[in-house]
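Internal ticket #5521
Category: modeling
Description: The requester needs a full-assembly model to guide mutagenesis choices. All entity lines are attached below as received. Residue total reported by intake: 179.
Assigned to: D.W.
Attached entities:
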Amino acid sequence: MFMHKRLLMAALGLAGMSGAALAEDIPQLGRVATPEEMSSWDIDVSPDGTGLPLGSGTPKQGAAVYAAQCESCHGVKGVGGPTIRLAGGLGTIVGSANVRPIKTIGSYWPYATSVFAYIRRSMPFYDSKSLSNDELYAVTAYLLQINGLIGDNDVMNAQTLSKVQMPNRDGFFRWKPGD
Ligand code: HEC
C-alpha cells in the first residue's frame, strides 16, 4: 500500500499535479456518522461482559416483558411454545446415546452475557432492537431465573450478569477436522 501511494504521488508529481488536486478528484460521497448513529450499531457483547450497556432489571420485571413480548412464541415459562424452548433440559447435554439432548439457555448456553447479546440483537423476532436496556436486563434475568440459575430477587446489570455461572460453561471444546 505504502509503496503504491508513493509511486502514485511520484507519478502525479511528474505530471505536475498537486495533492489538493488529488483530493478533489475523490468523489465526496456520504458524511461522517454521528456518535448516536454509531452507538445504535455498536451492540456486541463479549463473554466477559465487555460491551454491556448501563441499566438493570429483575426477574419480576422481566416476567412482564416476557409475557407481553416473548411468550406467544416461546411458551409459558419458556416451554411449550411454537418455537425454540428456552428453559429446562438441565443435565441432558451429556453426550450419551441414551439421553436426548434438550438444548435451552439453561442446559446449553455457555455465557449469560451471550444470552443478553442475542436478545439485544434479534428478539422479539419481528421487532428486534426495540427493547430498552432495562427491559433487556429484566427479560434476561427472568430467563435465568426460570432456569434456576439466579434467585427471584437478583438484580442483573453489567457487573452481575457477567458473574452468572452457566451450567454448560465448560461443555465446549475446540474442534478441528480430523478430531
Ligand atoms: C414471533 C415469534 C418470536 C417472538 C415474539 C420472540 N421470539 Fe425468540 N425466537 C424466535 C425464533 C423463531 C427463534 C429461533 C431463531 C433462529 O434460530 O434463527 C428464537 C430464538 C430465541 C432465542 C435463542 C434460543 C436458542 O437456544 O437458540 C432466545 C434466547 C430468544 N428467542 C428470546 C426471546 C425473547 C427474550 C423474546 C421476547 C423479548 C423473544 N425471543 C420473542 C421467535 C420469537
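Resolution: model delivered.
Comment from assignee: The first helix runs from residue 2 to 14.
Ticket closed.
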